[in-house]
Amino acid sequence: MNIIVCIKQVPDTQEVRLDPMTHTLKREGVKAMINPFDLYALEEGLRVKDARGGQVTVLSMGPPQAEEALREALGYGADAAILLSDKKFAGADTWATALTLAKAIEKLGAVDLVFTGKQAIDGDTAQVGPMLAAILHIPYAAWARKLSFGANGALTVERLLDHGYDAVELKLPALITVVKEINEPRVPSFKAKLRAKKEPIPVWGLEDLGLAEAEVGLNGSFTQVVKVFPPPARGKSEVWTGEPAEMAGRLWQRLKVMSKGVAE
Amino acid sequence: MDYLLTEEQRMIQELARQIAQERIKPIRAQLDEEETFPWDILADLAQADLWGTIIPEAYGGLGLGCLENCLVLEALAQGCVGVATTYAASFLGAYPLLLFGSDEQKSRYLPPLARGEALGAFALTEPQAGSDAGAIATTAVKDGDHYILNGAKQWITNAGEAEFYTVIALTDPAKGARGAGAFVVEKSDPGISFGKKEKKMGIRASVTREVILEDCRIPKDRLISKEGMGFLVTMRTLDHARPGAGALAVGLAQSALDEAAAFAKERYQFGAPIFSFQAVQHLLADMATRIEAARALVYAVARYLDSKPRDFTKEGAMAKLFPTDTAMQVTVDAVQVMGGHGYMREYPVEKMMRDAKILQIYEGTNQIMRNIIGLALNKEYSRKK
């Protein structure tokens, strides 16, 4: 099976700084890590490869330092890695990102499964995976918590819902976005890390992907982040304890006060 | 402090730290409470290729040296010494083969160990033979193409879980210490059985049992090296393993310091964090200094060992003695810094204090270490005139 896992390098810190021009995150020089959900995606890709054979290629779109994340992914057992990097990619929103990734996947040839994490912990949109599937014209299942292959090779995916889960069957090629419930990521292998040190990681830019400047980066984005700010600090908060019925009554009274100025 | 490690050494250290942080630390209290054997973590170590650290590449290992081994042990011990002991004791069983085994023996036992598929154990101690190892009574009688072993070994780490056991037994009791041989006994051999799991003060995730040999019949090719080599095999094995015991102590002490120092920043008394009081700072300063000295000693001896000197018995004993005494002192002080909280099982340092004690006892008591160093000094100063 030809398996592709898309990963994103995200800041490994609570303090984030924004680029004043593009209003996107300043990534250079900030301590970084593989987006946690993407580790679960990588693990699932490796498990499918272990069970059914094939190879796992890791892709990432990012600045040059994202190469570290790809090497780390190779250390977990991925077979190959490619970095999509170009100054023109900067400022990309989820659409431009998905388009760039899609072009890379098309360039790689026949693919059976694409894995992504549910969402990136810096953007929190959860859009790139489904958009990627749409651009590639392949079916997708989001928030996968379990994958299983039937006797005839049919893929069944259990998807996490707000309450419980459902199950869908997909024809391959397909894209899956995963949640943490899906597996327990393995630890890296020292031998794989040694190989990863020397592994060449090709860098594909605008021309390698056959994209136009207008299609990528800030230029290719339909949306732009105007401002990122923490929610305003709330006033004093209260903690009530007591029997549920009693507290429900008390809360009802309080809500009436807040909405209509009724005396408590 | 930067010890100028190579990139490969940093990589293996980081990998072991990742496992300690992600896999061991979250469950160490539970492992201690329930005395569960850490099979899942041993599997993670196999996935990470860390069962092969000191096994030569020809037998499926990484072919690395004593320093790399110490870096891994220190990192794992920062997670839990019980887990780290389980891992380290397996290599205690492997050293006799690594140092004295035939090609055939190495090919048979080392690859499964390097893959993490088989654990090892070292069986020397007996009820009447602890520090006085020469007083062992287990016998190995030649019978045609076999040896028949009889006796009982006491307090053997990994006993019952390990696949192969290096057993020191007397082939010629009349010769005393010179009449011993080192044998490989497999779990499936007839006549080997195990006693009850011992209840210990600490390292409760580690398993300790008696190994009972009753007419245990093994093929004669299980003898490592020659008859009469048993104690030399033992001494060289322990020489090689001692810096590792020191490394465990450094990791343990470091984790205790980390807990105590973090607590001292958050705990307020008399309107200030207790870290701001000189009495607490002096305790922490002494702890930190001794840990650094212990670490520097272990790394220096490990590097020396990797240069393949002819004799490193004295240095190996020093690398075990000082760090383990340090770990005991540091963990006691860590409990003290944390006061009442340190005493509660909800906090990790009381376990660390319980774990530290055995480090001063196993792999040769610290009193024996002082004997070894004293003897070596005596020889050295006899030569200098």
Describe the structure.
The complex is a heterodimer of chains A (264) and B (385). Chain A is globular, with a radius of gyration of 22 Å. In chain A, the strands form two sheets. Chain A has a nine-stranded mixed β-sheet, sandwiched between helices. In chain A, strands 2-3 form a two-stranded antiparallel ribbon. In chain A, α2 links the parallel β4 and β5. Chain A has a single domain, classed as Rossmann fold, CATH 3.40.50.620. By secondary structure, chain A is α/β, with parallel strands linked by helices. Chain A starts with a strand and ends with a helix. The relative contact order of chain A is 0.17. Chain A is 29% helix and 22% strand. Chain B has 385 residues and is an alpha+beta fold. Chain B folds into three domains: 113 residues, Butyryl-Coa Dehydrogenase, subunit A, domain 1; 110 residues, Butyryl-CoA Dehydrogenase, subunit A, domain 2, CATH 2.40.110; 150 residues, Butyryl-CoA Dehydrogenase, subunit A, domain 3 (Up-down Bundle). Chain B contains eleven helices and ten strands. In chain B, the strands form three sheets. Chain B has a four-stranded mixed β-sheet with strand order 1-4-5-8. In chain B, strands 2-3-7-6 form a four-stranded antiparallel β-sheet, with helices on one face. In chain B, β9 and β10 form a beta hairpin. In chain B, α4 crosses α7 and α7 packs antiparallel against α10. Chain B starts with 6 loop residues before the first helix and ends with a helix. The mean pLDDT of chain B is 97. The interface between A and B is medium-sized, with 9 and 15 residues.
